[in-house]
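Reviewers of the previous submission asked for a worked example of the structure-prediction workflow described in the proposal, so we include one complete record here. The input consisted solely of the amino acid sequence. No template or homolog information was supplied to the procedure at any stage.
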Amino acid sequence: MNTLRACANVSVCDDLSGDEDRHLGKTQIVIAEDDPDLAQDLKDRLEGLSYEVSGVTQSGAEAITLTQTLRPDLVLMDIQLRGEMDGIQAAEQIRTFQVPVIYVSGYAEGPVIERAKLSEPYGYILKPYETSTLKISVEMGLHKHQAERERQRLLKRFQEVVASVKTLTGRLSICAYCKKIKDHVGDWVEIESYVMKHSDASFTHGMCPGCFEKVKKQIEALDEDGLVPGVMLLG
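From that input alone, the workflow returned the following structure tokens.
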């Protein structure tokens, strides 16, 4: 049995099994609705859909406080609320907590709708609504939010990778004979050292087929000339 603790115009659901519900993956939702009867109806419908209502408030300011404190998965926000702050103003601040907001309102057109669009909600449920509409809207809002978080994670990872990659650009001065490269202070350094210093590349040493055939012929020629075994001249 949930025990509701009243605090001004806000109710926080103190359920002893709340931590267990969240651990089991139960979606946490905060309701901001100025009509107590509508708020209770919305709460009953959500719980019937196996969501957990972790807080209910009639105030926009309290909706922000609840969101900051409880960090729910979603906020269902009426536009017309008690107090000086309406639901749109509250939603704009809740966005900073990266918690999705879905409006539940009777406004179907006009300037209020245009303002609501600018706050970039994750959905809009028009009153009166069916439970099926509520279910679909909540699921779509949660899915959209999860997809955006994943895109942000991948973008951050991509930016980190790009920042860690060093590239060589521009014209390099390289000796035509010894293949050393002239660095920015005028020193001539081995090409391996230069590349490793200015990129994330590293070297392993081997022998290409052309050089292998060349060295092989030199060794064979030296053997024919009867030089001391183990002595090899390259070049």
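Helices lie at 18-23, 36-48, 60-70, 87-94, 111-118, 131-164, 191-197, 209-224. We consider this example representative of the routine output the project will generate in years two and three.
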